[in-house]
Structure prediction request, 94 residues.
Amino acid sequence: MSALWIALVDVKDADTYGKYAELATKAITEHGGSFLARGGRCRQLEGKERLRNVVIRFPSFDAALECYNSDTYRKALEFSSVSSERDMVIVEEL
Prediction:
């Protein structure tokens, strides 16, 4: 079964976040991920509003988890942690 990364993000420093995005995209593609939504138009209906929303499909839950734990993504997180606030979850698709 495929799986989704769902990230709700507030970017505080666009330049530093761009460095995160560059490394993260590399890790995501290396693990078979593809972007379904990436910062497009949205409307908050419930809960805490985040201005940037990202949805990525991976071929499996394990691939999604392996990507998150990869060396490349861990390096990307060094930039994300200082440039954004975010919530993220991996969800297995039906």
Notes: Strands lie at 3-11, 34-38, 52-58, 84-92. The helical segments are 14-30, 61-69, 71-83. The first strand starts at residue 3 and ends at 11.
